[in-house]
Amino acid sequence: MPEAVTRVMSEVTTRVGCAQLALAVGDGPGNAAQIRLAVNRAADAGAKVIVLPELANTGYAFDDRRELASLAEAVDGPTVTEWLELARGLDVTIVGGIAERGDDGRFYNSAVMADPEGLRARYRKAHLWNTEKGLFTAGDERPPVVATSFGRIAIMICYDVEFSEWVRDVALRGADLLCLPVNWPLYPRPATERPAEIVRVQAAASSNRMFIAAADRTSEERGQDWLGGTVIVDADGFPTTALQLGRAGTVMADLPLADARRKAISVGNDVLADRRPELYQAVVDDGSQARPGTI
Amino acid sequence: MPEAVTRVMSEVTTRVGCAQLALAVGDGPGNAAQIRLAVNRAADAGAKVIVLPELANTGYAFDDRRELASLAEAVDGPTVTEWLELARGLDVTIVGGIAERGDDGRFYNSAVMADPEGLRARYRKAHLWNTEKGLFTAGDERPPVVATSFGRIAIMICYDVEFSEWVRDVALRGADLLCLPVNWPLYPRPATERPAEIVRVQAAASSNRMFIAAADRTSEERGQDWLGGTVIVDADGFPTTALQLGRAGTVMADLPLADARRKAISVGNDVLADRRPELYQAVVDDGSQARPGTI
């Protein structure tokens, strides 16, 4: 008989803030000023982990590769240098997205984690969205899972989270909190429905019993409208605060991150232990051809 | 720049019905009568594919294995025999769950597909829920994907759908419609939130651009309350009809199943082609130990 599991929630919480910023492509100083203000305010309000949107240094809607080339920065460039100073000065962990110029001269849609210890991780988006494919090189490394004093923090970027394989990877490696810089384009949806991007984040969290903090952007950019769907979801897959669709501002929540270590969802079930990896091997071996079978 | 894809929706639709039944454990004749009535009415209303709940012949809340043993049936037993007759007589495809007594004397939480041609598939639930683990043997075969005149129809059961590996498997094998018999226990949730079970079905559909028809049960059974969360979700992940939480009755929708063959979600993106299977291999090779990494 299904029974609810009684969980003793940890009393230790970590205040996490997601800054939903009105970024503008090409306005590096303006974007940097918004970030500085948002990080300072969130830290003043007690946030220990602060998530910024994807491509927060540059904005998103590049006219072409030449414009991207003029705006992208190395990981030791001014943007990440400032984030490292903010992290050290305010004693916070910052996860945010940048347009990165790699040592190899290629461009990557990347995210970094800066904390008082320094640069803890750099991740390059592995699943590129639409015209990003003509601008950026896709990353080919697995998403980082970084041990911090708050718990294990994973990083991926926007469209990555729609690939359940990627989400499962960080969950299996023990992630308690997935920090997710995003730039979610605004798409039509039925009037009564929550945006599908948020629904997929909720499902990713509950299927793995892991917290997810997604920081989106807002404001129109060269004809592109953005969802502004910033959301912090708990390990049961429910948003921790009311949605602030489209509004600039910072969403904050106090997360009992240790709750993500308890994968039980009934007396007899555990979302990770119940996997049947011996049966999944064939899925990976297969290509994507349709080969319908019958009894 | 992200752009919406213009899709020409197929004008050919398939009417799919999901019967949300008030099953009662041990009342085989009563359950069979409800099924007969629901299938006849759905067929009269034009449904071509009719989905029934999990364990529709027996109900769910067995006292013990002995009670299950007294109720389970072989696939050539009276329940499936009647479903085959209904399918033939009404020219419909029926997918429903049964407590199955296998040739090996073991019990399985199974689902079958019966159509006018006969028994098209039998599937044994691979991810067992809670006390099912003490009653049933878990299946060890991949979920079927059956070519029909309506499209390719996959089958899995309840908790199976929470394993993204399993859902991806049928999507990669070309499933257009996933028929999902379920018995969803009623759990507490925030007052403003949709049940997590439905959220996960929505995400599974949209992440794979595949229709999902989930037929739940309702009515209290030996102290167990059920969600009654029957839902038919389109390939964008949105419910096709208003939810009828907890109410007995049949949910119907006309589904343009060919829409599931179009996996594009932007000019440059395709939910299956954008996978990075070469990067996922390591995930499968890993166990579930936490091995956090840093830069």
Describe it for me?
The structure is a homodimer of 295-residue chains. Chain A is of the alpha/beta class and 295 residues long. Chain A has one domain: Nitrilase/N-carbamoyl-D-aminoacid amidohydrolase (4-Layer Sandwich). Helices cover 23% and strands 23% of the residues of chain A. The first copy, chain A, is built from six helices and 13 strands. The first copy, chain A, has helices spanning 28-44, 65-71, 78-90, 164-172, 196-208, 277-285, and strands spanning 14-20, 49-51, 93-101, 107-115, 118-124, 145-147, 152-155, 177-181, 211-215, 231-233, 249-255, 264-266, 269-270. In chain A, the strands form three sheets. In chain A, strands 5-4-3-2-1-11 form a six-stranded mixed sheet. Chain A has a five-stranded mixed sheet with strand order 6-7-8-9-10, with helices on one face. In chain A, strand 8, helix 5 and strand 9 form a beta-alpha-beta unit. In chain A, helix 1 packs parallel to helix 3 (78-90). The longest helix of chain A has 17 residues, at 28-44. The two termini of chain A are 31 Å apart. The interface between A and B is large, with 85 and 85 residues.
Sum up the structure in keywords.
homodimer, six-stranded mixed sheet, alpha/beta, 295 residues, five-stranded mixed sheet, disordered C terminus, Nitrilase/N-carbamoyl-D-aminoacid amidohydrolase
